[in-house]
Amino acid sequence: MRDRSLVYLSVYGPRMLADPKTIDILAMLSVLPDGFPDNETVMEELESHLPEGYDHWKALLTMWRVLLVQVEEAGATHRLQLLSPVCAFCEQRLEASEELKNSITSFYVEKMDCFMDIRDSDGHTIILGELDNVYAVLVQAWKQGRGSSMIANASIQFTDWSRYVGNPVEKVIGLAIQGVVGLPGLHGRCHLAIGEVYLQQNKLDKAEASFKCAVELHQQAHDVFGEANDVGTLGVVYLQQNRLDEAKASFKCAAELCQQVHSVFGEANNARTLGEVYLRQDKLDKAETSFKHATKLYWQVHDILGEANNLGNLGAVYLQQDKLDEAEALFKYAAKLHRQIHFFFGVATDVGILEVVYLWQNKLDEPEALSEQAAKLYQQIHFVFGEVNNVGNLGEVYLQQDKLDKAEASFEYAAELHQQAHDVLGEANDILKLGEVYL
Prior knowledge:
3% strand; Serine Threonine Protein Phosphatase 5, Tetratricopeptide repeat; 3-stranded antiparallel beta sheet; 3 strands; 439 residues; 76% helix; 4 domains; Arc Repressor Mutant, subunit A; mainly alpha
């Protein structure tokens, strides 16, 4: 109660009331969970979106003087954020004007549009620090009936970024789907986006339904490029479900559609996924040919993420062909490319497979250091299944090195992680491995 009274006195004190627009900016700031970036360039861009008569620098200085905001460190950057009691007070008592809400929404929509390509590493330093704010602003816009085609596009881009960082979010794109009925092309893109979220969450039935819906909508809109994307991603669902003939048919159909619209990037994706079908069918020569073709196409369109992911697939072919030196070189290069674009899930995957390569090569000193590196990366992106597999691999290394205490600790930690993930089979396997330690 005392905190609330103090906040009330600060918010409605003489300094704040000297310019009522300061309280409006305070209300807007309370919507943003991560506050404003303490970055002059970004703040100048924000100022260009604000209505006439709003001076956010002056407002922030006033808030700081009356102890409503603080500067928080966020990694290498700093952010201007409301103190917790202030934030709670504002959520209950204040609401920004429509004009100001539209301004902040416009600012973030423009930011998402500028960095719509997640393969562009220039956007990472800005967008990754703003994702929570973008989420809050977009949800508010849809819920308050301020949705539009531009906000729908920003919702798709936000969803793509959320998948990229390993935390796929379905709420924003779910609201967008409800808000763009009657616009088949855009509606189709929204269904594609939520289908990709379901795919990453391993909700394959929901993903399949979403992609099929997207195909129908893009056909209605006569959008061949959109249809090609839908059909290709539908093939990925079939691949995950081991429906290989349906997957192959989807990828071939998608490749033909991509050729119609001259989409080299789409062709590259379909060459890669067709290679994955051949890999599952143990047709290694055809898989190798497809992956090499995809690598060439990704390089042509300067798609570093596609090239890096595809090199991992080619490395898998070489592993099956027992070409361990070639596989090692590819996974090292893939990790280098993934690091270049800050795709830490990809780096962790590459490093994890390199561990296996070194084990097969009987280089037992290398995997321990790599496993520790992969574990840190998986923790960084909160990917429990990746971390638990990695810990299990490390236990195997210690077992082979006869470091039984370390092997025991690894398998016990793996069992603990499997318990957290409710994976009974995985936990049972860890217990069996512990049995090998105790023998």
